[in-house]
Amino acid sequence: MKRVALVGMPNTGKSTLFNRLTGGTARVANWPGLTVELASSRILLGANMVQIFDLPGIYDLIGGAEDEHVAQRFLAEAQLDAIVLVLNATQLDRQLALALQLKALGAPLLICLNMQDEAKRAGISIDCALLAKELGCAVQLISAKLGTGLNEAKQQLNQLMSHTSVRLDLTHVPAASAMHAQEKRLFQAAVHQPPTLGLDTTAQVDRFVLHPWLGLPLFIIVMFGLFQLTFAIGTPLQDTMEAGLIWFKEGFLLPATQALPAFWQGLLVNGLFDGVTTVLTFAPIIFLFFCLMSVIEDSGYFARAAFMMDGIMSRMGLDGRGFVMLMMGFGCNVPAIMGTRVIRDHKARLLTMLTIPFSLCSARLQIFLFLSGALFSPANAPWVLLSLYIISVLIAMGTAVLFRSHFQSNEPFALELPPYRLPLMSHIWRRGWGEARDFLRLASTMIVIGVVLVWLLTNFPNPQHSYALMVSDFFQPVLSPIGIDSTLSIALIFGFVAKEVVLGALSVITGHEGTALATQLAHTLDPVSAYSFMLFTLTYIPCVSVIAAMKKESKSTAFTVFSLVWSLGLAWTISFVFYQSARLLNF
């Protein structure tokens, strides 16, 4: 088995190249510091089976952030047959130092100059033959996004497979800062670009996107438009899928289980099928939402959002990277927690980790999409959803302000803004399908177990005196002041395991699914109590996987416990203030 490592600075398209080479699904987003764990895949290259590793972005072979240390440790410890160094062809003036470092180590090297199409549009020409001669390795112009130059790169990589594998010694590697003079000389000799570049499209768009007054309202408008599209396109898809599942239930499942004992029919139909069906109907919306998110991410807009928010975040003890992690948390809190490795200062990392669980993740999104659609008008539902996103960010920021004195950091923030890019349909599809697939995989395991357990709790020893009613009675004094029906406490408890279970649990508890569940909740919850329930679900303790990630990354049990206590207490307080205030105002 041959081993190849993909190395490169953040935002060079390294993960895009990885996906092109392997057909893998490493997430691609147009901001630095995304890849924080090793992704690998095997491909057949010529006569060799090759395992390709996508390393975290790295600026230097010595020092740097924790994700850079991951790459450095891998390069120092792994036996490698080749290294593919991915450089941005439009930014070689500050990226060739990494190539010079690898040359000094004598690494078996192939350099891929990515974004050839952008370099061509900018009028940049590169003498690859001269670079190859100076660096002592093959240099290939490619566009990982469009797929050009990849066949030639594969052929050159295959030629390296005949060499003996090596292990790099990074103990005596010169620092990148010591390479700047040589980097400048090499750049001037091999790269030719127009002496003056006009105000391009990126700069013109940035006049509005990064405007100190217009930038933030524009960001809110973009996110609101995303929610509007999600509802407008996703709701009909959801209704179609729900109709198909109801047809299957009435036409096939009920007749097939009619001869079974009442217990088993209730478990299979009212418990398992109804619970999972309510969750499955959100697969089209999850797919659509993350396709739209992929457009925003891959375009380079989120990097601008991080830059724009740095001034605000710095007053709270965070920086733009913290905002990026909060945005990542909108997908899932786990990779966002792991992504804090790009923050070098440990205290700054802890403060960022404390705020991330308040990001409105995709699992919570399913709950809020359902409740907002069930209890609010089509005109108001997007505003309800947008308000929850804004509140999640405000809670995270408020937490940072409150605890910044305990986690002070003076680390400077540096972020390279990429040019705007048109996302590829293949990337959009891969992101949407990847999220939907992960959701369906979870529905086939964790959600199935969850809804079955909820059904058992609501039916044993009998439906009139079940364990679920005992739990509800226990939590009633705590939940009634915040307007949450005590029977919903079962859904909240299982939401601690995985937030995706909450909707399935609600279906089992009420005995209804889909539209019928929405109608039932509309009779038992008014908009105020529903919003209080959503606020509590947004803020209270995250799922088990997030807690495990926080414990692993913080290396502190005390910090993890503190985070859980803080989020649970804050959730009850926020819901209490909202609910009681709304009732006092006669809402």
Please name the defining characteristics of this protein.
single chain, 587 residues, alpha/beta, six-stranded mixed sheet, two-stranded antiparallel sheet, 8 strands
Describe the fold and architecture.
62% of the residues lie in helices and 7% in strands. Strand 2 and strand 3 (48-54) form a beta hairpin. It has helices spanning 14-22, 66-77, 96-105, 116-121, 128-135, 150-160, 180-190, 201-209, 215-257, 262-280, 283-298, 301-314, 320-329, 333-339, 346-355, 362-375, 381-403, 425-459, 467-479, 489-497, 501-510, 514-524, 527-539, 544-554, 557-584; strands at residues 2-8, 39-45, 48-54, 82-88, 109-114, 125-126, 138-141, 191-192. The protein is built from 25 helices and eight strands.
Topology:
Blueprint: E1 2-8, H1 14-22, E2 39-45, E3 48-54, H2 66-77, E4 82-88, H3 96-105, E5 109-114, H4 116-121, E6 125-126, H5 128-135, E7 138-141, H6 150-160, H7 180-190, E8 191-192, H8 201-209, H9 215-257, H10 262-280, H11 283-298, H12 301-314, H13 320-329, H14 333-339, H15 346-355, H16 362-375, H17 381-403, H18 425-459, H19 467-479, H20 489-497, H21 501-510, H22 514-524, H23 527-539, H24 544-554, H25 557-584
Parallel strand pairs: 1-3, 1-4, 4-5, 5-7
Antiparallel strand pairs: 2-3, 6-8
Helix pairs in contact: 9-10, 9-11, 9-17, 10-18, 10-21, 11-18, 12-13, 13-14, 14-24, 15-17, 16-17, 16-22, 16-23, 18-21, 20-21, 23-25, 24-25
